[in-house]
Amino acid sequence: MIELIDVTVASSRQTDEAEIEGVQWAVEPGQFWVIGGLRGKSDFLATVAGLQKPLRGRVKWFGRELAVLSEQELVSERMKVGMVFEGSGRLFRHLTVAENVALPLRYHHNYPEDDMLRMVQSVLELTELMPVAHQTPGALSVGMQQCAALARALVLKPRVLLVDKPFISLRHLRWWQDIFQKVSRGASFNQNQPVTLVITSDDIGPWLDYGTHFALLREHRWQMVGDRNAARRLHPTLHAALSEAQGGSGRI
Amino acid sequence: MAEHIAQGNAGAAPRAPLRAPLPRAYLNFVGRNLLRLTETIQGLGAFALITMGVAVTKLGVAAPLIRPLIRAQIYRAGVRLLPMISFLGFALGMVIIGQTVSLLTRVGAQDFAGLVMVSVVVRELGPIIAALLVLARVGTATVIELGTSRALGEVEALEALGIDPVHYLVVPRVIGLALAIFSLTVYLILTALVSGYLFAFVNDVPLRPGEYFSQLASALQWQDFALLALKTVSFGAIIAVVTCYQGLAQPLRIEEVSDATTRAVVHSVIGCVLLDALFIVVYLLV
Predict the structure, then answer these.
(1) Which sequence spans correspond to the domains of chain B?
(2) Is residue A143 part of a domain?
(3) What are A's interface residues with B at a Cβ cutoff of 8 A?
(4) A2 in a domain, yes or no?
(5) DSSP-derived secondary structure for A112-151
(6) pLDDT digit string (tens) for A170-194?
């Protein structure tokens, strides 16, 4: 579905600098990828989502190379790849949660108002956001805003969902784990079509029971870990490295 | 430490004679600003062309979403500014027009009242005042809105959803501002002309309403209407393109939004005045 061939990811701060080198990666339908690492995750996902050009290499979606697609082809492919940004999820602040979710539908499809409302409602019910549907993002906590951003990405019924650092507080961890399980199995909002998932996280620990494939971004390199068992074997050393890094930043 | 500083000073002194850095610094200053100016003009031109391209190619795309946005911009830049523009028109009529009429009458040149009115209000003051008012009230807000959106990454979020940011954010503003400035100018001119006559009337100027308006009518040519429309619509397009460009077209950090707003106001004013100058040439020719 998504393929990265010998890709060098550019840094968003210094666009001519390499953030991650040597990415060889192919995502197959039904997989749940968890990508760990402390640096370069957002740039990596932005490159996968076609928002940032790679310094080198090729990015393919559904077998077609992004760089050669026309603008219209790119838009129709984009609707199959959902993206949830890190932190507050970059909702549009002047719209309510429901309007945020409805915006991509309104732009791309000319559905009758009733159908559209039904679709928005089904996604909001899935993500348990109905109680805050008519509030603006500013009234929600940052974690809730990212949940709403997930709803906005799901409403176009993507086949692949990219989520950058889901849950920033433990309070929302359970919510994300539940929602990923539902979405990867298939839920009623998209007629039970399973969605392929790619998420990034500082620590792959919380996702060991959920992800099917694991990879790491370490010291500017792409490192494939493998399946759940491989990730479990590797995790203790990773965890030690992570807490050391966090301790280091704590001291600073 | 102190030694090091002293050494540093001693070392720096012979390398920097008093006169040498001045011209170079000035040259640098002028050169940098010229380069920046060319860059801005180039960027603005490209952005205007892209906007035009998008407006034409995506004319009917997502119309149920885009049309209400255009309406909202017209409401915001046009309808909501009506009280303000009426007030300005009234003041303009009282202060300038009324004075002119009564002065002209004193020297017995009442016949020229209509002509003066048309060249001052219809051709020059009306459009530029409406444009500056819209720039101050709506243009600045536009830069801040779009600049903040850009800085918070909402523009990338639009792209990720397959929504063209130029189509969704810029095109409605260009159309809305162009139409708003045109209609506001018409209201401003009407209020100014009527209130100007009121002032003259109150001051016992011997000028009948019929005379006054027939003078106006004879001073107006058909070109005035066409050029007025063209001029005001261009003002709107300039203000919208410049403010959207400053807010949207380049990567922006949140702390740079205020600078971008200042730049947008300066560039819009310069752009409008330059266009105004161009129109003076056109008026002289026709």
Answers:
(1) 62-285
(2) yes
(3) 46, 49, 51, 74-76, 78-79, 83, 85, 89-94, 103-104, 106-108, 110, 149, 152-153, 156
(4) no
(5) -HHHHHHHHHHHHHHTT-GGGTTS-GGGS-HHHHHHHHHH
(6) 778 888 888 898 888 888 778 888 8
Please name the residues in contact with B12: beta carbons below 8 A apart, sequence gap of 6 or more. none
CA gap A38, A54 in Å, rounded: 20
Render pLDDT for B47-87 as a digit per residue (tens, 0 to 9).
999 999 999 998 888 888 999 999 999 999 999 999 999 99
Nearest to A49 among B62, B152, B160 (CB): B160
Query: What digits encode the pLDDT tens for the residues B21-33?
Result: 556 678 888 888 8
Tell me whether residues B162 and A83 touch, CB distance under 8 A.
no
Q: Indicate which of A47, A107, A146, A163 best probes the interface with B, i.e. most B CBs within 10 Å of its own CB.
A: A107
CA distances from B4 to A223, B9, B14, B15, B215 (A): 49, 9, 17, 17, 82
Number of domains in chain A: 1
**A162 - beta bridge partners?**
A83, A198
A215 falls within a domain: no
* Cβ within 8 Å, pair B156-A93: no
| B68/A contact by beta carbon, under 8 A | no
What proportion of chain A, given as a percentage, has pLDDT over 70?
Answer: 96
Inspect the interface and report whether the beta carbons of A90 and B64 lie closer than 8 Å: no
Distance, CA of B98 to CA of B279 (rounded, Å): 26
Residue of B nearest to A94 (CA): B145
Contact A44, A4 (CB under 8 A): no
Here the tokens at position B60 are 């009917």
**Pure H helices in chain A:** 41-48, 71-78, 97-108, 113-126, 142-154, 173-185, 228-251
CA distance A1 to chain B (A): 17
**What CA–CA distance (Å, rounded) separates B212 from B2?**
82
Among residues B167, B191, B166, the alpha carbon closest in space to that of B247 is found at B166
Give pLDDT tens digits for B209-218.
888 888 888 8
B159 contacts chain A (CB < 8 A)? yes
DSSP state of A11: P
In a domain, A165, yes or no: no
Q: Which residue has the tokens 């892209």?
A: B50
Give the closest of B64, B153, B162 to A85, CB-based. B153
Chain A positions in Cβ-Cβ contact with residue B168 (cut-off 8 Å): 107
Residue of B nearest to A111 (CA): B64
Reported pTM: 0.85
Domain residues for A123?
Answer: 88-157
- Cα distance between residue A150 and residue A163, in whole Å: 8
- What residues in A contact B64, CB-CB < 8 Å? 106, 110
The answer to whether A249 and A222 have CB atoms below 8 angstroms apart is no
Residue type, A60: K
Task: State the smallest CA–CA distance between residue B41 and chain A in angstroms.
Answer: 24
* CB B93 within 8 Å of CB B196: yes
What value of ipTM does the predicted structure carry?
Answer: 0.88
